[in-house]
């Protein structure tokens, strides 16, 4: 990235570009600050009420705090707060790149059927006790969910390698997948016991309550692997937004890039979904917020969509604890309830076209 | 010196053969026009030369590498949330990988922006451009990396009269400076006569004629290409202009 210093010998257009870059960096810094604050508030809130000072003391000097608050802060609240960050960042980045490569503002892990497939996989485990990979009984639900989500994206992936398949076809197939998996899920629910049914319903609402340090680590590692792979393709991914023909005219191997990105996006989305269930909205809103704030130069759009997704999910996590004192509402519900009006306001007030 | 030779070039979409025999031998430094009726195969020939389509025959490039070829597609909308300046930078940065922009790169963008008279547009969003502005920006995107072979599909179709002259003159200067091969698919034959020193005439996927523009664009060829009666005269400043008399009478073809 360029530095922001102004050199009087430079032309007006270079200076104004440097100004634009400086503003974009400032926005990224602002989002980072918002994220840190949101995580801090998230950790200090919860059904058990502790003074902020005690929480801070436990965070920075765990040795001096008493056992109970230490367990609550370090083993319950921190993993939840951090999982909100990694999951928000992953789903938003996955949505951003799906929208980029499929040239469709509605593409997201949710609209392409990955979430629906994961819900169906999870329900298989909860209702029928069917494990797609025998052995790990304790991890049956997330493993089933992951396997189904990957199967759905493999299907999309396989289809997109066929000749003559356009991006529109892929998006339509994704929507068909959503309906199919939802129907299959409904069928399972119809035959489910009451206990299994409530487990399925709770899972599909999306919740961070099963957060562990292990899940935080897995999602963080996947982000750490995928992000540089996208970053290396930043210019090509930006070019693809000028249209397939223009991009290939610039020498971008569009087909190959699209397949590579689809693989990355599948893993990036499937793992968080299998941990937290359906948090549908982030994959669409995160990228749109980033696009409105930062434009689509991937050097800013890529970190921007991760940050905006993380901030939104983290702030939602805060809200899910603050709305009903003493209770933690499922985060998937809050994302949609609070996210939709916010999103609509953003799109309607920002004068220019967002797609 | 760059040269481009087309030897019996063919191309097909699936089973449908569009291009049968396009042959020409072009030298850098001047503008070459590619003319022909709608659906004659002009865009298809460009895609074939750019390597997006495969087919029979040979495209030979001398004095330039494959990556120094740039193709500007026919005008299509651009919806990306990018400013004009960003869209030109990204064209320059393709293939280079690095995120950092050097002063030379910024200078190259600046020079191109000035050359095509779009300095006043640099901060605008792509989606807010008019058709003509978009075309000018497209040209800048295509030339910012200083390619040695340039294929432009109807680069002036949306420009007003004055901008057509400006842009074609800038393109002519660019060819002269860089000794690049520039082929422009064009419909306005008067502009062709004024700015392009050589012309390729394409009909139904075959080159009918190729050579110095005034020798190619004869009334007989124009009748053959477009079914139009015309003659070439001189304007008050001595430049050749084509006068259209009207559709050819059937039995005259
Ligand atoms: N992608 C495509 N698939 C199939 N046929 C095509 C495609 N693009 C163009 N054609 C056909 O090829 C012929 C030549 O088209 P084109 O090269 O675009 O003509 P021009 O640019 O000279 O107007 C037309 O008949 C058109 O229908
Ligand atoms: Mg054409």
UniProtKB/TrEMBL annotation, chain A:
InterPro entries in the record: ABC_BtuC-like, ABC_transptr_permease_BtuC
Keywords recorded for this protein, A-Z: Cell membrane, Membrane, Transmembrane, Transmembrane helix, Transport
Listed Pfam families: FecCD (PF01032)
Membrane topology (UniProt): Multi-pass membrane protein
Gene Ontology MF, one: transmembrane transporter activity
Compartment annotation: Cell membrane
UniProt cross-references to Gene3D superfamilies, sorted A to Z: ABC transporter involved in vitamin B12 uptake, BtuC
GO cellular component: a single term: plasma membrane
Any single GO BP term: siderophore-iron import into cell
PANTHER family referenced in this protein's UniProt entry, alphabetically: ABC TRANSPORTER PERMEASE PROTEIN MJ0876-RELATED, FERRIC ENTEROBACTIN TRANSPORT SYSTEM PERMEASE PROTEIN
Family from the record: Belongs to the binding-protein-dependent transport system permease family. FecCD subfamily.
Name of the protein in its database record: Hemin transport system permease protein HmuU
Source organism of this protein record: Pacificibacter marinus
Lineage: Bacteria, Pseudomonadati, Pseudomonadota, Alphaproteobacteria, Rhodobacterales
Gene label: hmuU_2
From TrEMBL, chain B:
Keyword Transmembrane helix applies: no
Domain ABC transporter: 4-229
GO molecular function ontology, one term from the record: ATP binding
Domain of life: Bacteria
Iron-sulfur is among the record's keywords: no
Transmembrane segments: none
Pfam short name (any one): ABC_tran
InterPro entries given in the database record: AAA+_ATPase, ABC_transporter-like_ATP-bd, ABC_transporter-like_CS, Metal_Ion_Import_ABC, P-loop_NTPase
Keywords recorded for this protein, A-Z: ATP-binding, Hydrolase, Ion transport, Nucleotide-binding, Transport, Zinc, Zinc transport
Any one GO biological process: zinc ion transport
EC number: 3.6.3.-
Protein name stated in the entry: Hemin import ATP-binding protein HmuV
Record organism: Pacificibacter marinus
């Amino acid at each position: 990235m360029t530095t922001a210093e102004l050199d009087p010998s430079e032309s007006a257009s270079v200076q104004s570009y440097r100004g634009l870059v400086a503003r974009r960096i400032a926005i990224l810094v602002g989002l980072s600050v918002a994220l840190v604050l949101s995580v801090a508030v998230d950790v200090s809130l919860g059904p058990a009420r502790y003074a902020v000072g005690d929480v801070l003391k436990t965070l920075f000097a765990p040795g001096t705090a008493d056992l109970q608050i230490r367990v609550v802060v370090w083993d319950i609240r921190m993993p939840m707060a951090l999982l909100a960050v990694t999951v928000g960042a992953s789903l938003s980045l996955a949505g951003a790149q799906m929208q980029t490569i499929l040239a469709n503002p509605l593409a997201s892990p949710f609209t392409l059927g990955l979430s629906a497939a994961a819900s169906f996989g999870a329900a298989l485990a909860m209702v029928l006790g069917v494990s797609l990979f025998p052995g790990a009984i304790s991890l049956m639900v997330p493993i089933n969910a992951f396997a189904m989500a990957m199967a759905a994206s493999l299907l999309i992936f396989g289809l997109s390698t066929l000749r003559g398949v356009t991006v529109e076809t892929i998006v339509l197939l994704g929507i068909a997948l959503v309906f199919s998996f939802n129907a299959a899920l409904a069928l399972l629910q119809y035959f489910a016991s009451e206990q299994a049914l409530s487990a399925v319903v709770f899972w599909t609402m999306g919740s961070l309550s099963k957060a562990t340090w292990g899940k935080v680590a897995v999602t963080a590692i996947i982000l750490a692997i995928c992000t540089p792979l996208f970053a290396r393709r930043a210019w090509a991914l930006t070019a693809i937004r000028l249209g397939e023909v223009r991009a290939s005219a610039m020498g971008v191997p569009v087909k190959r890039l699209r397949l590579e990105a689809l693989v990355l996006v599948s893993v990036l989305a499937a793992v968080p979904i299998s941990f937290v269930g359906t948090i549908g909205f982030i994959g669409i809103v995160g990228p749109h917020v980033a696009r409105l704030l930062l434009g689509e130069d991937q050097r800013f759009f890529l970190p921007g969509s991760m940050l905006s997704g993380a901030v939104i999910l983290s702030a939602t996590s805060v809200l899910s604890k603050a709305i009903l004192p003493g209770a933690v509402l499922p985060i998937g519900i809050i994302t949609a309830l609070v996210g939709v009006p916010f999103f609509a306001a953003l799109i309607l007030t920002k004068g220019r076209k967002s797609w | 010196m760059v040269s481009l030779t087309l030897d019996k070039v063919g191309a097909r979409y699936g089973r449908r053969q569009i291009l049968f025999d396009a042959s020409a031998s072009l030298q850098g430094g001047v503008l070459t026009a590619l003319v022909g009726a709608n659906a004659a195969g002009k865009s298809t020939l460009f895609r074939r030369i750019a390597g997006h389509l495969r087919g029979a025959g040979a495209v030979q490039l001398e004095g330039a590498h494959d990556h120094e070829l740039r193709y500007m597609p026919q005008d299509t909308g651009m919806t990306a949330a990018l400013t004009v300046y960003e869209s030109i930078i990204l064209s320059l940065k393709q293939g280079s990988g690095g995120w950092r922009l050097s002063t030379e790169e910024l200078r190259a963008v600046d020079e191109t922006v000035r050359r095509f008279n779009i300095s006043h547009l640099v901060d605008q969003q792509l989606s807010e451009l008019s058709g003509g502005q978009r075309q000018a920006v497209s040209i800048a995107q295509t030339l910012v990396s200083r390619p040695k072979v340039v294929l432009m599909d109807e680069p002036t179709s949306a420009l007003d009269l004055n901008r057509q002259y400006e842009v074609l003159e800038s393109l002519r200067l660019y060819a002269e400076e860089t000794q690049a091969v520039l082929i422009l698919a064009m419909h306005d034959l008067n502009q062709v006569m004024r700015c392009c020193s050589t012309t390729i005439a394409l009909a139904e996927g075959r080159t009918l004629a190729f050579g110095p523009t005034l020798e190619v664009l004869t009334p007989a060829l124009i009748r053959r290409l477009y079914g139009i009666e015309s003659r070439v005269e001189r304007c008050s400043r001595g430049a050749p202009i084509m006068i259209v008399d009207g559709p050819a009478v059937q039995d005259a073809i």
